Fold each of these.
Amino acid sequence: MPLSLPARLRAILEAEFPRFSETEMVHRRAAVEALLAEAGLDHLVYCGANRTGSAVQWLTQWPVTAEAVGVFSPGRRDALFIQYFNHLPLARRLAEAAVEWGGESSIQAAIGELARRGARPGRVGVIGPMLFTQHAALSARFGEIRDLNRAYTRLRTIKSAEEIDWIRIGAALSDRAMTALGEGLRPGLNERELGDLVERAYAPEGGTNVIHYFGVTPMHDPQLAVPAQFASTRRVQKGDIVLAEIAAAFWDHPGQVLRSFAVGEQPPPLYRELHAAADAAFDAIAAVLRDGAMPSAVVAAARVIEDAGFTTIDDLLHGYGGGYLPPILGSSSRPAGPLPNEPFKAGMTVVIQPNVATRDGKAGVQTGELVLIKADGIERLHAVPRGLQRV
């Protein structure tokens, strides 16, 4: 069954290759030019490899495959050097840049392009996951290379209206996957087969896997409180709890949804108490989130977890979309580092995910989802029902 989407989102999903508008791309370039000007720089090298490095796609609309190194100079067309040679035809079709094969070394090709553009020592910045050898080659030619990753990350925390539309599609794909898991989950399936249920739900619509993590343990003798990052061959049994964290993406724009399922019987009192605390924490966090809210208010709202006698293992809240973004907040009993002192802003997309667990780390539940921060509160980006479900 096709995804149920508004007409404007269905048009994006069904495009041969979906594209952001010229207005959107001009806005992005202007934002990067402002970063360069603020840092006193003339040129930017941006890079990615093996489908990581979001700046490449954000600036050119080319999703990174094996490797990509781009050169950005205000007022000039970007140069993009990629690996492998057989990726050139599609990259030239999709990328808003002059695309060339990187040859033996994409960074050396970028260095040559910077030289042709008259780059001066101390006036080059970098965004993306650059290898030590790449940085060494770049700095040997152009001196100190300024790291703009922190500034770029801050830029990506606020989403444009077009980005939010693409994220809505990623959220719908993630919902489809979680729904398929709930409908297909039964005793006898192993964790790998759970992954098959999930991926088959969104692959026909062009969705791609970001994560599908599962945790499976007996509810009456629990030994696991959070999903695992790799699937085992353990088979689901009656009386198990299945914890799931799923993120499916539409062209690098994911949703993220977390749920828990009791298999074959009603959850015992411990799991009902854990999930009640998780639901209370989600609702309390959602009630304080809005433009101008402080991270400290989120942590304070989640104190219902500790008041119930529990703790957390995973992060309580994090930014999402274009990376795992700030703010990254832990609970008062399991901090995620120093508490940020910057307010939430309208246009941020964040995952509220109170993974409530027993203090011995043996039992826990998953609930949560991606939401959009607005001036007066939040908007849910997911439609899959909340709550601890029996299947």
Note: The radius of gyration is 22 Å.
Amino acid sequence: MAERVIALKKKIKLYALSTCGWCKKTKKFLDDNYVEYEYEYVDLLTGAERERVMTEVDRWNPRRSFPTIVIDDSQVIIGYNEDRLREALEL
């Protein structure tokens, strides 16, 4: 089967931890559905870069739990929730 890319006009940012099973599951879901996204493994960042990213996470998720998925800088999904992801991404 040829690879297909879903042409969503959505900006998706995944904040994750490299050791988090739910984060890996979220990343796999996005990959399996050919969704383009950016991601940050927050636990692998250091210094000012980590502070900057944690400030971004805090804006969307004051509890700072992972995964945190931000869609179009207007919607956030906290934790792995396939139904909410499908709905938000129109899959």
Note: The first helix runs from residue 21 to 32.
Amino acid sequence: MIENMSATPMASRFHIGIFGRRNAGKSSLINALTGQEIALTSDVPGTTTDPVYKAMELLPIGPVVLIDTGGLDDVGELGRKRVEKSYEVLRRCHFAVVVVDSGSGWTPFERDFIEELRFRGIPTLCVLNKADLVDAGRRQELLKEGPAGVPAVFAAALSGEGIVEVKARIIAGAAEREPEPPLIGDLVSPGEMVLLVTPIDKAAPKGRLILPQQQTIRDILDRGAMTVVTRDDELRRALELLAAPPALVITDSQVFRSVDVETPLSIPLTSFSILFARQKGDLAELLRGVRRIERLQPGETVLIAEGCTHHRQDDDIGTVKIPRWIRQITGETIRFEWTSGACFPRDLSRYAVIVHCGGCMLNRREMQYRIARAREEEVAITNYGLLIAYVMGILERAVAPFPEALRVWKEAVAGGRA
């Protein structure tokens, strides 16, 4: 999916998943919440197949994305796959709305799903939809029969009844969410200068900067700091023109080697990918994972995972450069597999190492899920930027701006452990 580059990126939006049985009125609810005919509605069960995403503004939350999912009670082999897709949406949800058909009431599908939401710690609201078709007595019964501790509201998506309250409950749930760690705001002070190194080559999108560069610039400006952006082949000249050294240099990881040579050791240096590894993932875990690369054995498999899909260039980083760098360290008999976008294997046991992109197109919940899955199966996981810095022999310098991460790395090196 190509995003409007002037809009808030999907990964930075508050994700609201709409779940329920087939024909419970999920699509009608999302249409009512957005005030648009976003999702196809029909009396035929199973109209919604793959999840449908709709970005919008929901004040005072701000940018959100509503996700309409297939029915939890779908049947058959194809239906089972649709249900799996609905469960996959949970990996990135900040808030869940479970839609119940007031006419048929609660079933094990909703109850089991709500228990899964409790287990995952996802704030939940139950919407008893089609409430205009039941009387007051039945409404009271439905409230009593519902799962304890989960708020429930009545609504009739087609007539608009209860939609204001549904929005209010979502807004209240969003206010309680844990704030995301900063991208760069804690590394610079107001008034300081940050120098960004952005190569312009055949992989660079024509007419714009890539998403990590855009988001970093915005975070610097939000901090009240300033930024200078230069190409890698103009870095030396940019440093000469600055009246004072920058507080930090941030580079595209693929030109780490040349930027390291041109940047004085007195100036802190890191990469966009490492910044995102810290914000969205677990920098300490990803640092430990990079040391597993040097212990790869012939025939072992490395999974290279990317959070987006894009057209591959001849010297693509994920399919060409990273395998080449790993083979330089370990030899030619390492196997590689690739995933992209929302796809991420359920079974990770066949992999020795996972090398993940920075995750700029994934939200923090999704990235945390992937790291947690690797940890559960005792599979080492690392990050593009960390791997490249390791291959270039400058990993310690690249993580020096993060004292806790630097300590973890030094301990791992000293202990000889992954």
Note: The chain has a mean pLDDT of 87.
Amino acid sequence: MFVAEAHRTWSDHHGQHALVELEQVDATRWASVLFQPPEPFDVRGALFLDTETTGLGRGPGTFCFMVGTARREAQGIQVRQYLAPDYGDEALLLELLEHDLAATTGVVTFNGRTFDLPLLETRYVLNGYARTPLYRVPHLDLLPVARRLWRRFSPSCALSALETGVLGVVRDSLDIPGYLIPDIYRQYQMTGDPREMEGIFYHNKLDVLSMVTLLVHADGSLDPQRSRGGGAHHDPLAVGRLHEADAAAEEALEAYRRAASSADPLVQREARQRLGALLKRQGRLSEAAAVWQDALQDGVLYPYVELAKYYEHHLRSYAQAQGVVQSAVRALASGWIADADPHRAMMELASREARLAIRQANAARRGGSGTGSDSSTA
């Protein structure tokens, strides 16, 4: 059994980030991303974990021969890597990892939800554990986070692609491609020559350090103050979607408002649509109406329909609603509004206009103008 340790000080950089930036990570933000309702999980005290294995399967035939970990300590980051030189060393590797897991607030991985953790749980079960040390341990998988935050900027969300495209990490010639790792380990088992194993240690160490800075980068993207200046890889629309999916409505609204002022018209359009829909779900209809009014410039049908509903059902202003519908009909007929099924859309607008004409006439007979007088806010 081999254990390798390396210590990186807070002043060290990994890519564009100094490791000390881990100290700025919001200790509570990631609990709300992970759990609803939020549960305690201070990611600064978490164990960053990555495995090296004899294959990509998760069945009992796949052996986990190395586990690399990184964790915060007083002066910086401690990296510890456990190597089982042979299958008979697996029990000790798992025991040492169990000790680390007992002293952590949670686990951070990259693609660990579908690979690393299920594989380790299998290995623990095969070694006679009735309940694995990973049972109910809070877990943050950075792969789905990365996909949600940076898929517009990176054609691939593999860790190696994010290192070069987002984090600015450059690996030296000692690194080896991940697909070669199983063969190198098997060769080491047959010959006992450890020289090529150095590349696996290097590869694994950079993986866990990249997880640290990836978390720092993601946390900065989700922090309104730190992300306000933008940046090459800041996507407020993606941030808004992530917050909305995790039921953090106010954070999502703020992100969508920033995205709505983007220079990219496609980002503006989606941001306005999501912002208006979220405000509507919260019952903040007057705010949503202001967003729909801005969205009339986007060449899509929905803001006309939403404004017509708002005037008809909330303000009881049938004349205003009818005017919006008539504007939509003209825009659709002229081609200003692009719709997948313009004939169906035109029929629905005609039906809505006919109903509004009847409601306006009924309001006039009852002595109302049909122009609305409700000044209440949503």
Note: Residues 373-378 have pLDDT under 50 and may be disordered.
